[in-house]
Amino acid sequence: GGRQLKVSSASLTDAGTYTCEASNQAGTDSQDFRLSVHIPALIERAGLDRSPKLLENSSHVLECPVAGIPPPSITWLYNGREIDFQQAEGFAIGAGGQKLVIRRGEVAHSGDYECVAENDAGTDRMQYHLEVYVPPYIVAALSSPGTPASSSTRP
C-alpha cells in the first residue's frame, strides 16, 4: 500500500506541492509533485438583461462575466458564427473578452449573440437576443403653400 495518493473531490485548498518519500534499509528517496486544481469556466448570469433592446445609433455593451481556473478564454458568436473583430465593423471587445461593445446599433445588429467561456476544466455558454429599433420619422414632401403634398402641378 501507500504507492499512490488519491485526492477525492479536490478543492482549491488541496492545490500545492506534495512530497512522496520512499525508504528502506538501503536509504531514502523523495520526489515532489505539484497539484493544480482546475475549476470549470462559469458565466455569472445574475443581473444581466439577456433580451436587450436599443435604439438605432445608440451604443450597448453585452457582458460575459466569467470565473474559472485557469482563466477561461471567451469567444463571441453572432447568429451562430464567430465574430471576427478584425473584420466586423461597429463592434469592439473589452475586459479580456468579457464585454462586447456595439458602438452604433443598426437594425443589422439585431439577432442572437452567444458568449462561450472555455478552459481546460469545462465550457459554459450564454445567449443574448438583441433587438435594434428605428424610431419613426416623417418624410415631408416639398410642396407649395396650399397645394396638397400628394398632388402635382404643371406649368
Largest sheet: 5 strands, mixed
- Strand order in space, largest sheet: 4-12-11-7-8
Tell me, briefly, the overall form: rod-shaped
Oligomer: single chain
Unreliable stretches: 151-155
Helical percentage: under 10%
Element order: H for helix, E for strand: EEEEEEEEEEEE
Mean pLDDT across all amino acids: 90
Query: How far from one another are the termini?
Result: 110 Å
Structural class: mainly beta
Strand content bin = over 45%
Number of strands: 12
List keywords for this structure.
155 residues; mainly beta; 5-stranded mixed β-sheet; 3-stranded antiparallel β-sheet; 0% helix; rod-shaped; disordered C terminus
